[in-house]
Amino acid sequence: RIFWMIQRWMRQGGGDDDGMDDDDIDNDNFEDEEGVNLEAFDVPLREWIAQDRTRREIQRKFRMFLSTFREGEEFDEDILDDPTMDEAERKRRRRLLAQTPPTYEDRIRQMCSVNKSALELSYLHLMQKEPTLALWINEAPRDMLDVLNEAATRHTLRLFPSYHTIRDEIHVRIADVPIVDSLRDLRRAHLDGLVKVSGVLTRRSGVFPQLKLAFYDCIKCKSVMGPFRVEDTTSHSSGPDGNRDVSDLHSPTICHECDSEGPFKLNAARSRYRNYQRVNLQERPGSVPPGRVPRTKEVVFLDDLVDIARPGEEVEVTGIFCHSYDYYLTQRSGFPVFQTYVSANHIRKKEDASSAHNLSEADRKLILELAADPNIGKRIIASIAPSIYGHEHVKMSLAMALFGAVPKNVDDKHRIRGDVNVLILGDPGTAKSQMLKYAEATAPRAVYSAGKGASAVGLTANVHKDPITREWTLEGGALVLADRGVCLIDEFDKMNEQDRTSIHEAMEQQSISISKAGIVTSLQARCSVIAAANPIGGRYDSSCTLAENVELTDPILQRFDCLCVLQDTVDPVADERLASFVTESHMLSIPTSDVARGAALAPQRSRFESSDGIDSGDLIPQALLRKYIQYARANCRPALRGGTFDQEKIASLYVQLRKESVNSGGVPIAVRHIESIMRMSEAHAKMHLRDYVRDDDMDASIKMMLESFISAQKFSVRRSLRRSFAKFLSSGEDRVHLLLHILQDMMRNEAMYQTIRQKQRGGGEAPEVLEVPLEEFESRARDRKIYDVVEFCKGQPFEEAGYALDMGRRLIVKNF
């Protein structure tokens, strides 16, 4: 088989110009070529594809697909040719067809605008228009991708003739393959076929040059021979004796100039290379069968795929299931041994579906509509772990950790972290681990580990020998893998003290310093840490402080922004509600497969209200909530402005907290806690997609800080502490009294105005109806740092005072 790239090099005499000939571009009229019946063959498929006329017909069909396919049902040719269709509708669709550019030519233009070389092709689109090509891609992917890459390159050069000066080849990436295989189910039948597997990247090598086109020098006559297409230079060896020179495998046997049999030497300067990287793909923990350990498969990234994914990310890999000869294992075992790996063609990361860059316009519109709801904060808290009853303060802390704050870097010298660390401490059966599992499923990037199974090396970084270069390299632990995400540590109290000490730097400076095996460096660990711990003896003792209830030192406790203490107290009313909630949850646990085939009805939970007054019907769907969190983390950076919150209130709160912490014990208060208040207020503002921190954001942050401080004290002093800190908390009852006073003042002024007008007109009767604009009332309330008045207008005190809200005219009415 003669490849197109070799033909091009031969025509140019091995020149350095990688572009196509001008004659090729001028005569590139694939529409006028005569077709060939691709299905009429009686030889093996790979031999049929290797024939020149077959390759030209495949390229013609594929380029016709690129130049004519338009995504959408309205562009279906079968529908346009339907005789029952109305003529006006047919004309409308044909006019729309003429106005809409082809889908893949538009993608080629977008690709060229950013100087990339990867064209993403949907397998479902190709199956819809050219099912034969789609079937052959699955059966002979390596041969078909060579042909499709050549066709895509020619088509791109037809649209942009000078693009060969930027990229010498366009790579077709096959996406949307419908069948997903498990790593442990890959067998001999999958060899040399197209497979799609999913898993978590655990290790990534460096990027190396791989031989692609080889030139050889004859030692005797100094002539240059080539190029020779190198099919596969992937060297799989499990021992030191297997590293043979791969270039010798493809060297010529005879010199065409002097007819000698060598020796030949690789011309490294004229040979062509491509990027090469090896990664390890491991099964997801949730997909491993019971009693088994996760399987690992090696994946090879080539060309533009290198460094597309980082260790710790969950990815779907579409590629060719290949095998290669292992020299070292063959020598040891005495019979031929082959290693299998996946040569990647397309990579899709898990967070790509909900990442801020891939959100559709409909998703953005829904997110902005949610942010406009004044109750969005309460709805988010109610939607966090909806299967867990109660624990609103824990859900608030989880929401703050998921949204995160704004990191600050002062003159690139002093960095202040923007991630919120949370510690959940409580009795058994209070859903601590379930909270962590929910955060793992919701966060765009999360790494989960348990106390006894997590060592200092496993959390930070370890040093090992690279199997390719045989050099010492670093491999990141859980905190490094969770960079720009969330690290979840369960059974935090079961860790050894030395292991806990190793994460001090990562929790505050968000970096990990390494000095091992001659490697001195620093790794980034910019992640939130959410940890769950059990008290000493199993149950929390209210007669002791938090420091006496858990075996954690003050330095580690101070690094947590929020401490949540969960106690399993006896309360008949709350226990009855909890039992009803759990019972109903089990009754509604119907498999979705039964609902899909009609064997069961879709479950409907009875509507209930949370302690914040949020109805269960107002819960945000989990898929939309994940997109909302991603959008807020990527696009919202709330600023701390001088006039938007009370700075003296924070200063007096810090003085009072320091004083009480010395007197009553518990968690010592330090300067870190002022930064914690700022971080939590920024996270609360992010939940509302605001550009600045308001006074109510600061109130919510202060409430969480006081809840953490008071719950860490002895039961005997909690009540007195709540009374002493009550002045820092603005309760809902205070707001109601203030809003009623503002409204009475506005109604009094309106009554005086109406009375004066009546007297000017000659009438002396008092007005029977008073109306004030809702916008004016909201403006007066905003001056008093109250931003939500609609809930007050729907409340009982508003109606008892004789007021009514007319939302149609946006007026507040009072009848006499």
Descriptive notes:
This protein has 816 residues and is of the alpha/beta class. Helix content is 39%, strand content 19%. The protein has 32 helices and 24 strands. α9 packs across α10, α14 crosses α26 and α26 packs across α27. The termini are far apart.
Question: Helix content range of the residues, please?
Answer: 25-40%
Which regions contain 5 or more consecutive residues with pLDDT less than 50? 1-27, 235-243, 606-612
Total strands: 24
Q: What is the molecular shape? A: globular
Sheet-strand content, in percent, reads 15-25%
What labels describe this entry?
816 residues, 24 strands, five-stranded parallel sheet, 39% helix
Q: Secondary structure elements and their pairing?
A:
Layout: H1 4-11, H2 22-26, H3 45-50, H4 52-68, H5 77-80, H6 87-99, H7 103-113, E1 118-122, H8 123-129, H9 131-139, H10 141-159, E2 171-175, E3 194-204, E4 208-218, E5 224-229, E6 264-266, E7 272-282, E8 296-302, E9 314-325, H11 327-333, E10 338-349, H12 361-372, H13 376-383, H14 392-403, E11 408-410, E12 414-416, E13 422-426, H15 432-442, E14 446-450, H16 456-459, E15 461-465, E16 472-476, H17 478-481, E17 486-490, H18 497-501, H19 504-508, E18 511-516, E19 519-524, E20 528-533, H20 546-549, H21 554-558, E21 562-566, H22 572-587, H23 592-596, H24 622-635, H25 647-664, H26 672-687, H27 695-711, H28 715-724, H29 732-760, E22 769-773, H30 774-783, H31 790-793, H32 796-800, E23 803-806, E24 811-815
Parallel strand pairs: 1-2, 8-10, 13-20, 13-21, 14-17, 17-20
Antiparallel strand pairs: 3-7, 3-9, 4-5, 4-6, 4-7, 7-8, 9-10, 11-12, 15-16, 18-19, 22-24, 23-24
Helix pairs in contact: 4-10, 8-9, 9-10, 12-24, 14-26, 26-27
